[in-house]
Amino acid sequence: MESRVLGKTDIRLSPIIMGTWQTGKSMWTGIDDVQSEKAIQAAMDAGITTFDTAEVYGNGHSEKVLGKAIGSHRDKVLILSKVFSNHLKYDQVIGACHRSLKILGTDYLDLYQIHWPPGAFGAKKVPLEETMKALTDLKSQGKIRAIGVSNFSFDQLKAICEVGPIESLQPPYSLLWRHVETEILAWCRENQVTILAYSPMAQGLLTGKFGPDHQFEKGDHRSSNRLFQADVYPHVQQAIDALRPIAEKKGITMAQLALAWVISKPGLCAIAGARNARQSADNAKAADITLTEAELDALDRISHPVTDLIDDNPVQWKW
User: Fold this and answer.
1) Per residue in 247-286, pLDDT tens?
2) Catalytic annotation on 57?
3) Annotated catalytic residue, options 57, 112, 173, 198
4) Which residue in 19, 49, 111, 258 could disulfide with 271, CB within 3.0 to 4.6 Å?
């Protein structure tokens, strides 16, 4: 599998990154630890070198399962984790990083990211300078190799880049959720900030497995996703129906089509979750798919009846 440079570093990421939010179990249903471990190992076998997690995913459970699954192969993979918005004071950042290192069973992280901006989810708003001081100290100590942010707006991204070195932004980005295209995509490319796109399959929607009457189990956070709401969902189903023949003609899955669209953008990586080994292996194959200009144009046309319905709020969920 090819690799893509992380920001201005010499770190090289796999274009398909395995995301492990679901591995933490919290806010998901039907997740099994044994299957999660097998999914991580299958991803490694298929050439995925990069794994994204966070302290808040199951309160460390995702990191625990990921560390166990990687085992003795730490030198062959890249681990990306995140500190949550309620741990952004200097001592809290240091403590959170040390906890993540211990749970993962490693002595360094390849990328450490601020998961949500200061003040998110009712957390006390901490100055960016204080948080960045902790992150740069961790970097100078060799505890982390690079610094990134997640869910930052364009203004927030520019503001923190003035405080310290940011190598990546992790926003939601898929064929059906394209807010970053307004300003962020071009700015990041110009300033060598790598975009790590999460929810590239629109939280499973673009796999085509959810029908018109789909209902999530209690406890599954996706029921709050704005793409699943009554005013948008019928248009999503129409888009899925239009995308399916394109995937079938190419002999690929709907999920692979969605991932291939994201990584067709220069320098972008797609963070794809997987519940089991088969999904991991299928996701990895997306790295080998090339979409023609005609196919890209068709995908663009199909997506707009959905994206035109979404307002400017870049947060996917109605929380």
Assistant:
1) 999 999 999 999 999 999 998 999 999 999 999 999 999 9
2) yes
3) 57
4) 19
